[in-house]
Amino acid sequence: MRSPLEPSRFLRLSIAWLAVACCQTLQAQTKIQVSTLSELRSAVQQNDQTIVMKPGHYMLTDLPEGSRVLACSGSSNTIDLTGVEVTVPVGTTPRSYITISGDDNVFRGGTFEDTYESGLQEVTDFSAYNQDRSKLAKGLRGSSVLAITGDNNTVVGTKLTVRGSFPYGYGSIYGIGANNTFGLDKRCGILVNGRRNTVDGCEVQQKAFGHGIYIQPPADETTVKNCLVEGVMRQSKDLYLETNPRDLPARSGYQLPGERQSGRSRERNRGGRRGGDEGNGSGPDPTTNTNVVEGKPIPKDIMLPLAEDGIRVYTGGGSVTVDNCTVKKMRGGIRLYLASRATVTNSTAIDCGNTNFNLPKGGKITGSTGNFAYAPLSDFRLSRSDQDIELTILPSPHIVGPHNLADVLGSNHKIVFHRTDGPLDTNLRPIVIQGDGSTIRNETEYPIILQSSASGNTVVSFGPVTDLGSNNNVSQIERP
């Protein structure tokens, strides 16, 4: 007879199972300390580790030429770069230098800064900059600094300062696709290609032509939260100050590119499609080609965003959630109109050059804020319909350009415009409505214009309303 103190077979198996589980847990929590980029590069290719790098300053050029990439191909790792600063001299690597291709990783911290050999911080002499493609105006052939291609990864608390691209200083006026005028060498911030990835508490200082954070297929269920993306703006009239015959504005005759290009130009500009569905190419040095494309004069009354979009989704990039993010001075702010689904909460987009917000069909914005300083608050790109929008409009006393406050295209929207506290704005740009079947509550002083194409809309407004459409129901409210 078995002693009452003898463990049962079930209990023995349970103890054995717990022992194995504990060993597996300990193995999964293996802690690796690294103190060089070479050690870090090796460690991130393995699995199931907590990798902690010694705080300090490092140079990407500490890695051998041809191997200057932190290829995080391992899975289930926590990579802790708290207190780590990495300097990346422009021109020392031709592609993304942080890639996360594994799954279920946490990439935490780290400050990565692209630097110029001369120590230049802010480009102000765009003439000299764009004529020095080997040391200054050199991008990543359209790639991002950090690319997430695996699934279920989180990048948290990482800061990127992105420098180096060609051309820089002219926004996208010389083309962003294969038919760019002078060649193109972009440099972007963070690319998300995988599924169920999160970018949390990151900062992208975008001082090169390219996107801040952008999402491409087969990405889906992407979350971007607590992030800051900031670019640089330039007055378009300043392009007329570039009078050196080698300057791009002078070479273009101070005109925007037209539809016609020479056969040589078309052949030259057939570049790979990278960094966006507009395409890219790394063209020849502009000083070796005198092709001029004729078009309209460069406008003198707008602000040019020198980078692309702050948070951007491309066709096939799936769904995205944006929460508590701020985008400043980019081409497009929170630009999600090509997503399959999109939700934006508690976010701010200001001082952007083409639009501050836009959404896909059925997209939603709540508790968010924007202005209309250099572009509309929202442009409702491609007339996407059925949007649910709640936005607080910020006054824009520094306004430049002839744009409307907002251009409401598409149908069946539910829109509420709030106003900020303070005196009434005197710069009354209009909210222009062109679609039908929308319900719009305007608590601001800004006027609404219902165009002749607008019908069946219900508008409740504090600001004055001009109804040029048909069958619209309009009523006025007191100042909220």
UniProtKB/TrEMBL annotation:
Spans through the membrane: none
Keywords tagged on the record: Signal
Designated name of the protein: Right handed beta helix domain-containing protein
Alphabetized Gene3D superfamilies for the sequence: Single-stranded right-handed beta-helix, Pectin lyase-like
Matching InterPro entries: Pectin_lyas_fold, Pectin_lyase_fold/virulence
Biased composition, class Basic and acidic residues, residue ranges: 240-249, 261-277
Domain of life: Bacteria
Signal peptide as annotated in the record: 1-28
Region (Disordered): 240-297
